[in-house]
C-alpha cells in the first residue's frame, strides 16, 4: 500500500491492492474468515470489505463457507498458488538438509521469505520434541518480533529497514517494548561478525537463531532453527547451532539460485 507521505503513483490501482490485501489475510492458521475479521485485519471500512469480497467471490478467488458466515480461498486463488509453486523443485532438495538439522537438535527448522510485515514459511521441518510451537508452511511470523524477521532486517540497507519499521509502526504492528528493541539492535549489530541472529523468548522458554540467504537483486530467503531453551540453551545456540545454521545458509544459496531459473 502507498503511504500518505509518498508521491502519488498514477500506475497504482488502489482497489486491486486492497483486494490482494484481503487475500493475504488467509493463511494456514486463518483458513476461514468473516468480513468483520477481514476489516479488522486490513483496517479497511466494512462496506469496502463487503464490495471487495463480493468481487473476489464472483471471480472465484473467495468462496462462501457452507453453513457459516465466513469466506475461504476459492479455486482461482488455489490455482494461482499452485502456479507460483511450479518449478519450486529446489525446496524439495532443501527439505532433507533442514530435517537433518532439526533431527540433530530436536528443533524446528524453517525457510521463509518476506511478505509485507511478515516472514512466510515456505518449508518447516521438526525434530523429535513435543514442546515446539505448532507452526506450519504458510504461517506468518512477525518481522520485528522474531529471529527469522531479525535476520532479514540484518541484511537490509539502513533506509530499507527504517522504511519497514515506519510502515509497521503506522499500521500498529511494529510496537516493541524497550527490552525487545534493545535486543533487536544488539542482534542486528552482531550479525556481520556472527553470521546469524540470536533471539530468546523467556516467557515461552524458547531460543532461536536465524540467518539470511541473499540472492541477486536484493532477493532474500531466511532460515531459522529454534526450540525449547532446556534443549537449546544460549551457549549451545551461540557456539554451535548458530554457526551451523550460518553454514547451512551458505550451502542453500546456490540451490535457491538455481531454483530461480527452473
Structural notes for this entry:
The structure is a single chain. The chain folds into 2 domains: 14-82, Arc Repressor Mutant, subunit A; 87-259, 2-Layer Sandwich (Beta-Lactamase), CATH 3.30.450. A hairpin with a 2-residue loop joins strand 3 and strand 4. The chain is an alpha+beta fold and 262 residues long. The protein contains 9 helices and 8 strands. Strands 5-4-3-8-7-6 form a 6-stranded antiparallel beta sheet, sandwiched between helices. A two-stranded antiparallel ribbon has the order 1-2.
Layout of strands and helices, then pairs:
Blueprint: H1 14-24, H2 35-42, H3 46-58, E1 62-64, E2 71-73, H4 75-85, H5 89-105, E3 108-115, E4 118-126, E5 140-142, H6 147-154, H7 158-171, H8 178-194, E6 197-201, E7 206-214, E8 220-228, H9 234-259
Antiparallel strand pairs: 1-2, 3-4, 3-8, 4-5, 6-7, 7-8
Helix pairs in contact: 1-3, 2-3, 5-9, 6-8
Key descriptive features of the protein:
9 helices; six-stranded antiparallel sheet; two-stranded antiparallel sheet; alpha+beta; 8 strands; globular; Arc Repressor Mutant, subunit A; 262 residues
CATH architecture of the largest domain: 2-Layer Sandwich
Q: Looking at CATH, which topology of the largest domain would you report?
A: Beta-Lactamase
CATH superfamily of the largest domain: GAF domain
Computed over alpha carbons, the radius of gyration is 19 Å
Number of strands: 8
Backbone structural class:
alpha+beta
Largest sheet: spatial strand order:
5-4-3-8-7-6
Shape: globular
The structural domain count equals 2
At the first level of CATH, what is the class of the largest domain?
Answer: Alpha Beta
Summarize the helix and strand pattern as letters: HHHEEHHEEEHHHEEEH
Into which percent range does the helicity of residues fall?
Answer: 40-55%
Question: What is the residue-averaged pLDDT?
Answer: 84
The termini sit apart by 30 Å
Number of helices: 9
Largest sheet: 6 strands, antiparallel
Low-confidence stretches: none
Q: Give the strand content.
A: 15-25%
Amino acid at each position: 500500500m502507498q503511504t500518505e507521505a509518498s508521491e502519488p503513483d498514477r500506475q497504482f490501482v488502489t482497489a486491486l491492492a486492497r483486494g490482494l490485501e484481503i487475500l493475504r489475510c488467509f493463511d494456514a492458521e486463518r483458513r476461514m474468515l468473516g468480513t468483520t475479521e477481514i476489516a479488522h485485519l486490513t483496517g479497511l471500512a466494512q462496506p469496502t470489505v463487503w464490495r471487495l469480497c463480493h468481487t473476489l467471490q464472483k471471480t472465484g478467488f473467495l468462496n462462501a463457507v457452507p453453513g457459516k458466515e465466513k469466506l475461504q480461498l476459492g479455486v482461482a486463488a488455489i490455482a494461482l498458488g499452485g502456479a507460483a509453486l511450479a518449478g519450486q523443485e529446489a525446496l524439495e532438495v532443501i527439505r532433507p538438509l533442514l530435517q537433518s538439522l532439526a533431527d540433530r537438535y530436536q528443533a524446528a527448522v524453517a525457510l521463509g521469505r518476506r511478505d509485507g510485515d511478515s516472514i512466510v514459511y515456505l518449508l518447516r521441518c521438526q525434530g523429535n520434541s513435543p514442546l515446539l510451537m505448532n507452526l506450519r508452511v504458510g504461517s506468518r511470523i512477525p518481522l520485528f518480533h522474531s529471529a527469522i524477521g531479525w535476520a532479514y532486517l540484518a541484511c537490509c540497507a539502513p533506509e530499507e529497514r527504517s522504511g519497514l519499521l515506519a510502515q509497521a509502526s503506522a499500521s500498529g504492528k511494529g510496537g516493541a517494548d524497550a527490552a525487545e528493541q534493545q535486543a533487536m539492535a544488539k542482534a542486528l549489530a552482531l550479525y556481520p561478525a556472527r553470521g546469524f541472529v540470536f533471539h530468546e523468548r523467556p516467557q515461552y522458554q524458547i531460543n532461536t537463531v536465524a540467518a539470511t540467504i541473499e540472492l541477486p537483486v536484493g532477493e532474500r530467503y531466511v532460515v531459522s532453527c529454534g526450540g525449547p531453551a532446556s534443549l537449546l540453551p544460549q551457549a549451545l545456540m551461540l557456539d554451535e547451532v548458530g554457526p551451523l545454521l550460518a553454514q547451512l545458509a551458505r550451502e542453500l544459496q546456490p540451490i535457491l539460485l538455481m531454483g530461480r531459473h527452473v
